[in-house]
Fold each of these.
Amino acid sequence: MSIKEQVKKHPESLVAKAYRFAEQAHAGQKRKTGEPYFNHVLATAEIVSDWNLDETAVAAALLHDTIEDADKDPADIRREFGEEVYFLVDGVAKISRVKYRQASAQVDNLRKLILALSEDLRVVLIKLADRLHNMRTLAVLPREKQKRIALETDEVYAPLAYRLGMHSLSSEFQNLAFPFLHPEDYRKLQQVVTKEFIAEQIRYLERIRDKLSEFLKEHHISPREIKFRVKGYGSLYKKMQKHQNSFDRVYDLLAMRIIVSDVAECYAALGVIHAAWPPLPGRIKDYIAMPKPNGYRSLHTNVIGPDNKIIEFQVRTTQMEEDNELGVTAHFLYKQRGGSMSFAKQESKQIAEELRIVRQLHDWQERLGNPEESSDDLLEAMKIELFRDRIFVVTPRGDVFDLPSGATPIDFAYHIHSEVGDTSTGAKVNGKLVPLDHTLRSGDLVEILTQKGKKPSEHWLAFAKTGAARGRIRSVLRQKRSGTLLSSALHTEFKISGRDRVGLIKDITSVIARARVNILSVNQQENAGRGNPTIRIVCDVSDPERVARLAEKISTVASVTEVTHHAV
Ligand code: MN
């Protein structure tokens, strides 16, 4: 049911109220196309409604430009529509206010998005819907504005949609942005991939679909649906760039999607496909057994079809298809199907939590407050982590971590714990020893080897990929430099004897910590029979004066009888 129909049917609903408020607020305003401005907010709200968001979100989508573009008082919206709608409208307005120009504004924009994302996903989803409608109608804007909006869409919104699991939205963004970003390449590509060529491919795919239906029927598989597509210009261009501009290496120009009832049928259908057309070696991907980090599940294979054309087949269940297409919004759908139509901020937060994005976001947020972090570094880290493909690796205990593709054992080590990262010496991948700069692959079983007292090395920065690892390495190196400015990088071992008592080690280590000296290791040696232990503590300190002062302080701890020290 369209929003207009909904409004007619339930004139007292929240959506209807928002409809009238927005219509009045934008009265007389025209878009560049000449049509009423209200059409834009209505279209945005239709998209939000198509994504199965609740009526609070649909109302907020209708109101999303009333503050920025119609000068409505935010207080009015709060009074008329309540706290929740106001929060969403205000959130969208905040994101819109940031213009995307240079790197610093870019970070700021991302930060606002991220804040909104961790606070309430609906803010971001409304913004994505707003952007989608603006992109669909971008042609009428002035050249400069087109470029800026297309760039922002390509660099921020398309990857974000991907990360949220909204795959068709992500590629629609790419395809819509492409002609404005690379008009020259777009024209060239149109000459290679002509309208006639595309029409021909579609006829080809129709024939393949009919054959496939027959084959599947022979094997008693009745697919729910078979769809196909020819890759759009924008995503085609992206793919070609990855492969030295070669058209021949784009294996998914033609794609066929088979939707079946259950997982067993997925594998059965894959077998049927491979029996009909030879698969390309090494191109079978099982994202059902190993889903992508954003939750994507499907079987993929590339086969050599008639006339030596390469076709990508994607096989998945109805449920997977829904999850893959709707991404995060599928969660909203399930919630609503579950009976309750209400949807609180808290639940939206939980979904973000489930996506495991939030923890990363808060890490960035903290780092944004750190003046030592340059915005370029941070931007780079965000781009890598939010916007790139991820891999899955497994710990010896069977925990699965997702890391950016290209990650090394050092990233994995820091992902487990900063202490593990700092002290790592090497790694075993699938039982074999590898150096720390080894590139990890999805499905690898990784075990980190550590050595007590070890410190990060400068050269780790050459291959550490995650922001978390790089940030930690940099900060430890910084501490190291400022702590040992005057002396060579030696450590000191303190040997402490004394009467054993509860809390002795804790008291000693807190004295050391208060002197701002790093403890590298603590060992306690039981002196058999004599009752009194010897405590050995290696510290990151070598300046003789500081060492002497520290030894003095340690000797004042209750029940300590003797303190000696030597360089190690
Ligand atoms: Mn708008």
Amino acid sequence: MTVAIVQRTHPILRDKAREVPLSAIGSEKIETILRDMKAALEKEVDGVAIAAPQIDVSLRIFVVSKKALRHIAKKKAEEGTYEDLVFINPVIIKISKDNKLMEEGCLSIRYAYGKVRRASRATVEAYNEKGERFVRGASGLLAQIFQHEIDHLEGVLFTDKAKSLKELTPEEWEGMVN
Ligand code: ZN
């Protein structure tokens, strides 16, 4: 059974998530949370990424789906195998001044879409699921994902920032993602 993704009015989405103690990385508790996050992502056809508060866990973790990484690689005509990418205690250490309005949605705000101004490039430092520190730079969609997910950890939703927000019916949404 997969865990449910909490929806827009759930108060946990507005909390500032807590840091994961480094000693807890690799523990049964954190492994279970990561498993639940990946399973919840897998279930959503448009699941590019998820933050822990979206499965009702107020911890600083987000996961980018292999689906999203494959999609980004395809656009660059790169090939390879992709795994879900785990970011624990992520911090943006570098962000570009140039930005653009990007179309955005959220697994917790069905079925709203809007344009959000996001930096074109961002670099994040985080810990992986083995507790190793790493740095990942990104542009475009992945940079947008970093900013959207870290906003979640601060209790910020894209609808707080979006321009020209539109609400789709479930039927319109079906038509869009399929
Ligand atoms: Zn979201």
